[in-house]
């Protein structure tokens, strides 16, 4: 893929993120205007209410005052987009995770704090006069306004709460809708959902913050009075002062709702716009050289391994067109290209898809070798086979004794085969006293190290972590395999030149291999069971259905596609029994 | 019938007799009530045994009225007040109406759904497997008769599966069945590990977000999405069954009752309990087209195998309608997607039996997978009408064929469906579930 096309793909996705940010800013301004209408509400003087609100909206101050918030939102959106579009990298230990994700997470936390603080600051300027300013005059003395401090703290807490609840431990993951509806319907759905849920979530946050402010608010105010050089006021000293101030609690809840819903909207708008279809083509146009540089082909976008979102979008594009009954894209895949009448479109696509599936399967197999249960079974089998082959009954008896000992804990269980002294070795090296002491010390140190608190937590890789990571990031494989299967099935009627039939064996074998590996995982890794990981269920189901789709459609020709053997027998059994 | 020698003989009648009496009983009925019990004591006992509403009924009973008229009159006033509140609530929130079995039966495709021995029949898309749901809330699986297999499969029974309204085998999967019932969706994995006659729980269940019963469900053709409708919900739910995620298709209007995906999955038809029904274009960002049925709600629908024609009947109107989904490229006109009446199904007297009627408001439609026959069952007459169909590029025609009847004049068809074409079947095999619990298989040539 040309660098121009890669750049174009990046720009396209980034521009969508910017659009999402602009939408969020627009919604925030609408909410600000709504707030202005609410706080100025006068039941008996509706005309005054309308005039006052309109005057405030039309004046320059709200727009100028909202500039810092808009800048903070822009910073937030860019940080969010960068994380979403960045490459997915596997971090085997928590330490590596901290090194890789720590700075980004910290930056994102700062963005949350800024957005929370600035939203609170902007909104307090339109609230009741008691809440507007940080410092007020009381008996000729400058005093710190506790109400204002309370609300600013509420803003920061809301930002931190949202970060902790959604981003602190989880990756900034991409969610694709189940069905692709119009943008306006998706956005409307997101808006309704957010406006319904945020007020309820905010109640809890407000309550916890109020208790927190009662406990630690005095300390914060003390520091602030020293910092600004003003006196402290005597408001909000006790829990009763906080609990009995209905207006303050209402404002705090309103602010939290506003901040939480804004952040949620930014996240969801980003999802909605990023998950929209990319303008992809199967083959570049040959009419214009300049135009061809600007076209993104499905095969080339599928090859963007450092852009997971783009890969997923291309895979989904292919799946939808493979499934659609009257798709011209699918016909284009089966076409022969001129000059030369070669199936270049199918070739490029099939090779790319098979390469992705094969790479994924290889990585999965490699990761599974580190899972103790699978590793244990395999090494145990290997050991058993080795012993039986060499010496026969004597070795078998010894093996059984060792198995008995291991099972009943008489000796420490070890997966590694015991060292056998080979009579063919002429000289055996016997370590001297120093070496023995060194080895003993080293063993002791290595044994003690994991016992230190935090060492295992930070530097140990959990069992099957890489497998879980691979399965969690296999959305493109899910769509690709299903798309391949549908293309193969559609080729029965639509592939006039027989471009697909040569690759049927490779496709079936690739899917069958992956299916077998996933079946192994089903019993090996408890963290991938349905209650823990839905991604595994989705992946396994998709692979099984894809294989079933091809096998049932080519049932009569399966013997010709796959040579006689165990694989053919397994596939035939798979059709009947699943 | 020699052509159907591998097909299992199914008759639920005997099994239903065994289970129907023991299925539901009231513990309180076992004990003889004490005659000398005072009214208040009796009411309080009923309250603790059977709940508030039964206690109120007891307070208003003739016996209580005779013994203590004051308590009965007070209970009457209280009941009237509660009834008033209920009506007012239904006026303001009509969607909160509790879905009774009668209401489900009103919109079900199965005739006399409440009492019918067979409630639903579902054939596997690819294999020779048929699931039959009975009135006893049990799903029985039958398969092909071979030398080693008598054709009787597992029995699926669970407390979380009552009032079964619909079922569907998952496409591109050999062993997964989903059952729509009062509790929601029950997913059964029927593999070799499930032993004959063993009653176990479904592999997993999904509840409707508003805890409503499922009235209709259908898989898309590759088994990734499951569309469900519920009589109490305006939205159609699209489930991603593997991870349980839902995306609702929301529109204003009456609640949905029936769903049907076109064979190529281009369209999804969703009828409602009102006059409105909608056609969703699945591959065009789920755009929707709204249609209004003149007489009443849509009772049953069926697609032609090519997916270009949709046939439907209304609840009360004995007319068969057709919607043509063909775009005329040469001369596109505004009548392209118009609803066209294509047959009058009014009841008429059969030639050979002067006092026997066939026709009237239709109960269910089914079209054979080869597109040669259309089968219609009726709400009030017991015969099944078989029409010949002619499907062209732009036109759909039907002509009178013949009729099918049960073993006796009183026997009526509860549910009909066709066995799909697959590697085990290349014919149009009509499956008829009769009211007595008997299943008849009929090959249409």
TrEMBL record, chain A:
Record-linked InterPro entries: Nucleoporin_prot_Ndc1/Nup
Membrane-spanning residues: 20-43, 63-80, 106-126, 146-164, 202-220
Keywords: Membrane, mRNA transport, Nuclear pore complex, Nucleus, Protein transport, Translocation, Transmembrane, Transmembrane helix, Transport
GO cellular component terms given for this protein: nuclear membrane; nuclear pore transmembrane ring
Superkingdom of source: Eukaryota
Subcellular location: Nucleus membrane; Nucleus, Nuclear pore complex
Membrane topology: Multi-pass membrane protein
Predominant cellular place of this UniProt entry's protein: nucleus
GO molecular function: protein-macromolecule adaptor activity
One GO biological process term: mRNA transport
Family: Belongs to the NDC1 family.
Protein name per its UniProtKB record: GH13245
Automatic annotation (TrEMBL), chain B:
Aladin seven-bladed propeller domain sequence ranges: 101-441
Listed GO biological process terms: nucleocytoplasmic transport
SUPFAM superfamilies cross-referenced by the UniProt entry: WD40 repeat-like
UniProt GO cellular component terms: nuclear pore
PANTHER family per UniProt: ALADIN (PTHR14494:SF0), ALADIN/ADRACALIN/AAAS (PTHR14494)
Protein name as annotated: GH11853
């Amino acid at each position: 893929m040309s660098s121009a096309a890669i750049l174009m793909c990046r720009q396209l996705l980034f521009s969508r993120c910017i659009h999402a940010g602009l939408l969020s800013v627009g919604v925030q301004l609408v909410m600000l205007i709504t707030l202005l209408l609410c706080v100025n509400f006068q039941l008996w003087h509706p005309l005054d209410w309308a005039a006052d609100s309109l005057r405030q909206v039309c004046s320059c101050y709200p727009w100028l005052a909202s500039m810092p918030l808009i800048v903070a939102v822009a910073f937030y959106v860019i940080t969010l987009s960068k994380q979403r579009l960045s490459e997915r990298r596997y971090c085997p230990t928590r330490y590596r995770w901290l090194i890789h994700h720590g700075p980004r997470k910290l930056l994102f936390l700062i963005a949350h704090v800024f957005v929370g603080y600035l939203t609170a600051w902007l909104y307090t300027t339109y609230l009741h006069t008691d809440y507007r300013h940080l410092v007020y005059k009381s008996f000729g003395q400058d005093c710190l306004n506790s109400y204002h401090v309370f609300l600013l703290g509420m803003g920061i807490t809301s930002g931190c709460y949202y970060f902790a609840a959604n981003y602190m431990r989880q990756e900034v993951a991409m969610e694709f809708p189940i069905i692709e509806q119009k943008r306006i319907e998706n956005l409307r759905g997101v808006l309704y959902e957010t406006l319904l849920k945020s007020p309820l979530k905010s109640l809890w946050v407000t309550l916890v913050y109020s208790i927190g402010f009662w406990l630690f608010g005095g300390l914060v105010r003390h520091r602030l009075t020293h910092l600004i050089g003003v006196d402290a006021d005597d408001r909000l000293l006790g829990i009763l002062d906080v609990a009995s101030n209905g207006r303050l609690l209402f404002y705090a809840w309103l602010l939290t709702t506003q901040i939480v819903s804004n952040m949620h909207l930014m996240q969801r708008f980003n999802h909605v716009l990023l998950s929209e279809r990319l303008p992809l083509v199967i083959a570049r146009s040959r009419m214009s050289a300049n135009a061809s540089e600007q076209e993104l082909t499905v095969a080339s976008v599928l090859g963007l391994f450092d852009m997971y979102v783009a890969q997923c979008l291309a895979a989904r594009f292919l799946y939808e067109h493979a499934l659609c009954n009257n798709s011209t894209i699918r016909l284009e895949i089966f076409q022969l290209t001129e000059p030369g009448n070669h199936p270049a479109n199918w070739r490029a696509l099939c090779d790319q898809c098979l390469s992705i599936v094969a790479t994924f399967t290889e990585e999965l197999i490699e990761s599974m070798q580190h899972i103790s249960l699978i590793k244990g079974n395999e090494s145990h089998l290997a050991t058993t086979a080795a012993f039986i082959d060499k010496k026969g009954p004597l070795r078998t008896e010894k093996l059984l004794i060792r198995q008995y000992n291991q099972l009943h804990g008489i000796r420490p269980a070890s997966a590694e085969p015991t060292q056998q002294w080979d009579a063919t070795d002429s000289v055996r090296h016997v370590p001297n006293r120093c070496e023995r002491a060194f080895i003993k010390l080293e063993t002791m140190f290595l044994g003690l190290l994991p016992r230190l608190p935090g060492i295992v937590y930070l530097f140990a890789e959990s069992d099957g972590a890489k497998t879980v990571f691979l399965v969690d990031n296999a959305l493109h494989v899910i769509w690709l395999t299903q798309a391949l299967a549908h293309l193969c099935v559609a080729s029965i009627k639509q592939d006039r030149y027989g471009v697909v039939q040569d690759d049927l064996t490779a496709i079936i074998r690739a899917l069958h291999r992956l299916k077998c590996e996933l079946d192994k995982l089903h019993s090996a890794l408890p963290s991938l069971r349905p209650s823990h990981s839905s991604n595994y269920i989705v992946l396994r189901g998709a692979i099984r259905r894809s294989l079933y789709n091809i096998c049932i459609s080519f049932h009569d020709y399966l013997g010709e596609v796959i040579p006689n053997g165990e694989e053919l027998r397994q596939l035939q059994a798979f059709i009947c029994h699943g | 019938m020699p052509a159907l020698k591998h097909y299992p003989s199914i008759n639920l009648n005997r099994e239903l007799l065994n289970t129907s009496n023991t299925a539901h009983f009231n513990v309180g009925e076992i004990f003889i009530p004490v005659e000398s019990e005072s009214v208040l004591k009796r009411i309080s006992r009923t309250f603790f045994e059977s709940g508030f509403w039964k206690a109120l009924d007891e307070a208003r009973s003739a016996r209580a009225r005779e013994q203590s008229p004051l308590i009965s009159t007070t209970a009457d006033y209280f009941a009237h007040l509660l009834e008033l509140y209920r009506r007012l609530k239904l006026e303001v929130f009509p969607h909160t109406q509790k879905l009774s079995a009668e209401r489900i039966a009103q919109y079900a495709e199965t005739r006399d759904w409440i009492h019918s021995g067979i409630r639903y029949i579902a054939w596997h898309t690819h294999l020779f497997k048929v699931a039959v749901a009975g009135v006893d809330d049990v799903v029985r699986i039958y398969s092909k008769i071979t030398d080693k297999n008598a054709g009787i499969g597992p029995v699926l029974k669970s407390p979380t599966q009552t009032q079964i309204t619909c079922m569907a085998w998952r496409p591109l999967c050999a062993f997964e069945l989903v059952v729509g019932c009062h509790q929601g969706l029950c997913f059964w994995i029927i593999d070799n590990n499930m032993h004959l006659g063993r009653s176990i729980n479904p592999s997993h269940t999904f509840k409707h977000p508003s805890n409503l019963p499922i009235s209709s469900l259908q898989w898309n053709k590759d088994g990734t999405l499951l569309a469900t409708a519920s009589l109490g919900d305006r939205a159609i739910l699209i489930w991603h069954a593997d991870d349980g995620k839902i995306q609702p298709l929301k529109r204003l209007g009456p609640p949905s009752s029936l769903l049907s995906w076109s064979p190529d999955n281009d369209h999804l038809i969703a009828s409602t309990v009102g006059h409105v029904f909608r056609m969703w274009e699945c591959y065009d960002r789920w755009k929707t087209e709204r249609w209004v049925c003149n007489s009443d709600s849509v009772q049953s629908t069926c697609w032609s195998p090519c997916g270009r024609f949709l046939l439907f009947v209304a609840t009360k109107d004995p007319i068969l309608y057709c919607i043509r989904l063909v775009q005329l490229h040469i001369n596109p006109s505004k009548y392209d997607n118009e609803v066209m009446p294509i047959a009058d199904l009014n009841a008429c007297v059969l030639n050979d039996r002067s006092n026997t009627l066939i026709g009237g408001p239709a109960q269910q439609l089914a079209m054979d997978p080869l597109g040669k026959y259309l089968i219609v069952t009726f709400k009030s007459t017991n015969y099944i009408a078989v029409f010949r169909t002619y499907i062209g590029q732009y036109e759909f025609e039907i002509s009178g064929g013949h009729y099918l009847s049960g073993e006796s004049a009183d026997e009526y068809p509860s549910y009909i469906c066709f066995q799909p074409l697959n590697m085990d079947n290349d014919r149009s095999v009509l499956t008829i579930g009769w009211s007595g619990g008997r299943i008849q298989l009929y090959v249409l040539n």
